[in-house]
Amino acid sequence: MTDVHAHETFRTARLADDSTPAPDCDECRRWEASLASVDRAGPALAPAPAGDARTGRIVTSVIGGSSQRTRPGPRLGRRRAAWAAVAAASLVVVGALAVVGGGNDEPALQLVASSTERASTASVRIDGEARLAITTLTIEGTGAVDFPDRVRLDLELDVDNETLDRVLPDPVSFVSVDDRSWLRLGSGAWRETARRGGDVLGGRLDAVVFDPASLLGSLRAAGAVDGPERASLDGEPVDVYRLTATGADIAPHLAGIDVPGLASLRDSITIDVEVSADPATSVLRRWEIVVAEPDATPVLRLTVDFDDHGEPVDIEPPA
Amino acid sequence: MTDGDGTLVRRVAAGERAAIEEFVRAHTDPVWRFARSLVGDDGTAEELTQDTLADAVRGAGSFRAESSVQTWVLAICRRKCAGHHRRGRLRVVPLEAAGAHHLASETDATTVPALADALDQLPDDQREAFVLVSVLGHSRVDAAAVVGVPASTMRSRHDAARRALADLLAEEER
Q: What is the value of pTM for the model shown?
């Protein structure tokens, strides 16, 4: 058998069913033997057990610590809320970059549909996971974006399995009227967004969701973007683009946009942004932002996965 | 979750010292092995195990019996490991350093190091799936619960990992 498609067919079938026999093909038999080696040798990679001495140290350490802080107290609760706010702010930072940058200079990427076409589709759903890479906290959230004549994002965050109600007291809102657009963070004042080009949707939050080219154009205004590099996400190929910038690089592109919690960090942090897009459709699959201290210690990691593009969702209208 | 697990967690949540010790002793080994499989040295894995179990003890009151206690604790450990390492830097350590303690055959003596090297080349999500299912022996359903993804996603990640590893080993044999 020499047909590469036949090799692939066998491999797929063999992964799904261990009893699938290999065809009369040296390459397939060699691959089958390798898979058997993988399955047989995998358990041998397991580390040795913790052992009595290590277990004893861990028990002592945990009991010693837990006697003083068995339950999260008010200080920890405030800390959670504060970091959740920073995480939410970081979400806005990336969104704001897309809003205020406005470049669309990635010729290698073909957009799935024009903004006008997207405007006629009702909505898109985001399933997001936000991970906060500091000592004890993890944030997970779900959100939804609606795109008819008003682009609006709702986000609810859980921190370490404790739901923080109203982390963002009001949604981050984008409004577009004709060729002008406005951004509002929480219940703050509306600010008109700087923008270029003729995107009829204005606010460009759609760029974060649909349009890696526009997002990358915005990122390039803040620094050199590496990529694309082919990688795998959930078993599917993606093109990955990366930007490393300092807070000072990012700050000019946020002029006029108040991002809570960012001001005190602006001068000392570095920000890594990673954008993963479907290589065939250019649909954005994931973006990740990592904020690090000068010694490269990550203080914040936020990952948002985008799924179910084009699926309708229900969003409560604003009061 | 068994009744015993639930009772123990409730006692831990109440701050009962003997229950906390029993809980920590029961979960140290699986947490240690998971952390040790994902990070590069014994000391870091031990710290992450301590942090994981300390968090589990502190959070026992908020434990929702939507999964087994072990799944819940391993999920905490996973987040700890992810937080410790920058994305893409989680790795399975070389065989000697990991202290692998059972080699099934002479063939494995050569295969295992090659497999460890190949595993280090996989994307994080696939490497994590392989470690949980093929290295540590969790079911795909349990592994999915630890990672927080649907079982179908874990199945596809695990199969993708096995396929990629077989490809890499086959390529090496050429």
A: 0.48
